[in-house]
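FIELD: query
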Amino acid sequence: MATDAAAAVLGLWETAEDAVDGMAADDWTRDAPGPEPTVGDLVAHLAGDHGGVHYAAPSRLRTSLADARHREALRMAGLDVDDPVLGASCLDLCLHAHDLRTALGLPVDLAEHAPAVLAAARLVVDLAPRLLVAAVGPRAASVRLVVRAPGRDGADAAVLDRTVHVVDGHPAPARDTAPDVVDVDADALLLLLAGRRPAEAFAADGAASWSGAAADALVHRAPLAA
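FIELD: result
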């Protein structure tokens, strides 16, 4: 349900705010994973990075972060679970909360926010044809994406299952040949395609597996920018 995903996003905001509340003076200059170079840059980005927020004192940044969470709550009110706006918010907060807590050396488990992770994964699966084209170029390719609930065990069923076909840089009708396969936990999918951890690390943890050249290209070269 959309309300579950929205509540999970706000939970991610709270984890981010808790992390920022506990930051020491030298934490603001720590390196951050992802596109923001430092923790201070990341917090400013979350806070909106407008009206001088980027150069504000920590107290101002904390206030701006709380204001941003309130705006996000209003924006998500009434959105459908399949709305790409909701999916984009979920993806952003999953990655930013992960990046912030990782940079600060704090534990992070996206599986605790499963509705947001699944909404974000749904958006990524919708983008799969574009990602596959970016990974393989003009050649023909077929990949089946099997995405499982965060923190799966061996008995869990797939929650998203889609086969994508591309030819000459465009989505195409299904082919007769069996597709390559990517089988991945939803939280691992987000972090893998956003470049937060290498595919081999998720494979070693049992959170991802893949077979075939097109699947290999997707997990190593799909440019999910977030």
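FIELD: remark
The first strand starts at residue 141 and ends at 148.
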